[in-house]
Amino acid sequence: MSVYSPQQFKVLCIEDEPEILRDIADELADHGFRVDQAASAELALPCIDKGAPDLIICDMQMPGMNGLQLLEKLRARTDAMAHVPFVFLTAFGDRETAIHGRKAGADDYLVKPVDFDLLIASVESHLRNAAQREAATRNAASLEAAPLVPGYDEMIAFLATQPVGTALAVIKLDNQSELAHRFDASDAKRTNRLILRLARQGHCQAFRLQPHVWLAVMPDAGQNSGSLQTKLEPLVQIRLRDRFSPAASACITHSIVLGQTGSDETPAALIDRMRESARLLQREGGARLLCLEGPELSELRLAGAIRSELVGAIDQGELHVHFQPKVDAGTGLPRSGEVLVRWESPLLGHLSPAMFIPVLESAGLLPHVTDWVLKQTALAQIALVRDGMPARLAVNIGASEFNANLPERIACIFRECGADESLLEVEVTETSVLTDPVAAQAIIQALHARGITVALDDFGTGYSSLSHLQNCTIDTIKIDRSFVTRVAEAGPEQTIVLGIIGIARTLGMETVAEGVELESQRQWLALNACDTLQGYIISRPVRFDEYRAWLRGR
Ligand code: C2E
Ligand code: CA
Ligand code: CA
User: Fold this and answer.
1) Using CA atoms, how far apart are residues 308 and 359, in angstroms rounded to an integer?
2) Is 138 exposed, middle or buried (0-12, 13-18, 19+ CB in 10 A)?
3) Of 123, 287, 289, 438, which is least surrounded by CB within 10 A?
4) Arch. (CATH architecture) of 6-144
5) Quick one: pLDDT at residue 225?
6) What is the pLDDT of residue 95?
7) By alpha-carbon position, which residue is closest to atom 32 of ligand 1?
8) Quick one: which ligand is closest to 427's CA?
9) What is the pLDDT of residues 437-465, one digit of tens each?
10) Which of 323, 425, 433 is nearest to 380 (CA)?
11) Where does the pLDDT of residue 395 fall: very low under 50, low under 70, confident under 90, or very high at 90 and above?
């Protein structure tokens, strides 16, 4: 890779005053540039024709052809000199000439007496810009030019000779255009070189489908498809250095989709699917290698659909909430209910919150849903209070929303609906509380100040150790279903659950067992001092009217 060096560049200085000409030439030479000198525009012309300067510094006021006329002549040419960077010198206060010069296509102007620091800075900056423009053009030209590897027709012909099960990879360059301006053309061609090297070493046969899309084929794959993956993984990200400031670096990244030929699809159709998937992968951030038939591509597809569908979902009434009771382990009497969101999308079908909540959370869209769920919770609570039924309800709050605004946000919604926030519980995950325990404790206190209690959801699945609990004033621990499922069998789960219940008691916290499905689990938990039970054995999550009917039945 070439690094910027003044020695590469030749600067032509045109100035009729010999002293100024000499000073400028010396200054440039001192900075390492190669310099040509001319005492007039007429004398400069042959030099321009044969010497092809990389930049011209030219006085405007000269006897004979002046700087402006020379510039116009240059810009009218059809060769590379039409674009040569042109910096002109003008007398102090000669605003008219400065404007004319810029209008005629000069890149910059300097006022006499010349400030040499400014002169050098200007020269360097224009040379860099020109070199970058040139690199980008060269780059684009080289990539559009005759393929360095065989193309589509050769590929189809080649695949016709390959057995079913041949491993293929579509390789798509993610960020070509944005990097082409900053990096050397030879770097942008790095992908090509790497793919060709793989091909030369006999690992694969390479075809270029488009300037930035390749197909690698590994003959007699079957057991080799994993090996194609290993070979291609280094291509996902290639580090580059900036040619002008070598300390700076960036990455060329690729979206790579692996596939295998099958007996019921033509190679052309398979490759179309792979290219479509590579485009999808690129849209979702790129810089990854995935298998066409693996779960990740369909997850990406669904994630994209979820994001675009959510916006209308709330307005179209596609979201609703279910309620699942939590009961006293000893008496079986209802204590509260958990509100769980549901999404029935006409396009995507029934979506589990376990699927769409994380997608919305990573896209920053979760607050739309949470605000809506909080409002439904407030309205449900009002109805329950009116009917004289237990009205305590819990909502789930994502880690990204467990922040200092949360207490006020809840208060606002409850105030607007006329509901009582002190009947609310929030369920948060261990990550919410442990990423920044000090901040989390402040939020918990602010919630407590409003009478809102806090439960730690899915306890035992995260990274927290029991000792972390000492430092936070959580009200309730929800023992994760994975422990509850096996709690009636003698085994490590019993020890873990006993440990959790013991610590919670010591710290003055309540325990809820989630996912109780069997009578044996219910009995064991009641016997071992778990406070509250939730699960299918009591009730599945149900719509509000069913929940109310269930409560009425107790
Ligand atoms: P979670 O908070 O742990 O909720 C309990 C999940 O376990 C619910 O799944 C519930 O239907 C299910 N469940 C309850 N009892 C049983 C049982 O006895 N057996 C089995 N196998 N499952 C049981 P769901 O409704 O699919 O929710 C999944 C997760 O989605 C929730 O896990 C929660 O993390 C999240 N979620 C649901 N609604 C919301 C919401 O409104 N906001 C946020 N941020 N997350 C939500
Ligand atoms: Ca929960
Ligand atoms: Ca849970």
Assistant:
1) 11
2) middle
3) 438
4) 3-Layer(aba) Sandwich (3.40)
5) 58
6) 83
7) 354
8) 2
9) 899 999 999 999 999 999 999 998 876 66
10) 323
11) very high
Residue 402 has pLDDT above 90, yes or no: yes
Residue nearest to ligand 1 atom 20, measured at CA: 515
Angle between helices 67-75 and 41-51 (to 10 degrees): 30
Q: Tokens 């369909």 sit at which residue?
A: 298
Residues with CB under 5 A from ligand 3 (ion): 457-458, 514
- Site to probe by mutation for ligand 1, drawn from 340, 425, 512 as the one with most ligand atoms within 8 Å of Cβ, is 340
- Is the separation of the CB atoms in 324 and 335 below 8 Å? no
Nearest to 167 by CA among 266, 261, 296, 265: 261
Query: Angle at Cα 475 formed by Cα 474 and Cα 477, nearest 5°?
Result: 80
| pLDDT tens digits, 42-68 | 999 988 888 789 999 999 999 999 999
Which has more pLDDT, 125 or 338? 338
pLDDT class for 1, splitting at 50, 70, 90?
Answer: very low
* Cα 340 to middle of ligand 1, angstroms: 6
Q: Burial-class residue 312 by CB neighbours within 10 Å (0-12, 13-18, 19+).
A: exposed
Measured between alpha carbons, how far is 323 from 542 in angstroms, rounded to an integer? 5
Instruction: Indicate which residue's Cα is closest to atom 21 of ligand 1.
Output: 515
Ligand 1: residue whose CA is nearest its atom 45:
396
Quote the CA–CA distance of 394 and 324 in Å, as a whole number: 10
Q: Which residue has the higher pLDDT, 55 or 80?
A: 55
In CATH, which of 3.90.230.10, 3.30.70.270, 3.40.50.300, 3.30.2060.10 is domain 152-293? 3.30.70.270
Q: Where are the domains of the chain?
A: 6-144, 152-293, 310-553
Q: Which two tokens stand for residue 355?
A: 């699927």
Residues whose beta carbon lies within 6 Å of some atom of ligand 1: 324, 340-341, 352-354, 357, 370, 373, 396-398, 427, 457-458, 481, 514-517, 535-536, 541
CATH code linked to domain 310-553:
3.20.20.450
Ligand 2 centre to CA of 398 (Å) is 10
CATH topology identical between 6-144 and 152-293: no
